[in-house]
Amino acid sequence: MSDLNLSSVARSRGEQLAGLIALVTGAGRGIGRACALACAAAGAEVIAVARTEADLAALAAAHPRIRPMIADVAADEFPARIRALPHLDILINNAGTNRLQPLPEVDVATLDHLLHLNVRSAFLVSQAAALRMLELGRGGSIVHISSQMGHVGGPKRAVYCMTKHAIEGLTKAMAVELASAGIRVNAVAPTIVETPMTAPFFEDPAYRQFALSTIPMGRVAQPEDVAEAVVYLASPAAGLVTGTSLRVDGGATAQ
């Protein structure tokens, strides 16, 4: 490709989300941080949500189009803060967690914690965003961060799989219900991603080898791999894409 064409591609990529307002939850670290930076680089004004002020300050310092919002997405009052936003075009519904436990050892506290954050909070956040987009009447894009475990099962992940299968179902239902308003709803389903949350797992060589053995492409995903898919689904380039789940999994679920 010529230098001229490369420049045109770069300009086009840089303007994918120009003029749009994006809200990214769980933006302090890992996938959320990468999504906030990628959306800002693609031209969006980004509202980055996390609980830790220091993480958000570092993120805001990394790009001038990122505005921090210190908040707990699981708090009862958080949906009202979304409804109060002057403008909202994109939601990256990323906040979530995981705890690895064999099925017989799953305790009620873990069950409740994952259901509360991964399902209840994810639903209420996306509901509030959808309501705000409907009020504004200019369409929008909601991208749920799901997982390959929303498509398959895995050991020590019974509760996590359950929550991510719920997100996949929510994606389809919201897409159908909101399509007539021009609001697209999709999911990104990554394989195991190397993030601060998963870093303790990767300290175990056996776990790293296990992770690599499940991915035909032979490498562990990085947050930026997920962020690129998110930007595509959030952008007008995916204007007729809704109700789908884009698996960023190196072929893991194709086996």
Automatic annotation (TrEMBL):
- Which source organism does the UniProt entry give? Methylobacterium nonmethylotrophicum
Which UniProt key words apply to this protein? Answer: NADP
PROSITE patterns from the xrefs? ADH_SHORT
Among Pfam families, the record links this protein to: adh_short_C2
Which InterPro entries is this protein grouped with? L-xylulose/Carbonyl_redctase, NAD(P)-bd_dom_sf, Sc_DH/Rdtase_CS, SDR_fam
Subunit composition?
Answer: Homotetramer.
Can you tell me which family this protein belongs to?
Belongs to the short-chain dehydrogenases/reductases (SDR) family.
Name of this protein:
SDR family oxidoreductase
Q: Which GO terms describe its biological process?
A: glucose metabolic process; xylulose metabolic process
Note whether NADP occurs among the keywords. Answer: yes
Show the GO MF annotations: carbonyl reductase (NADPH) activity; L-xylulose reductase (NADPH) activity
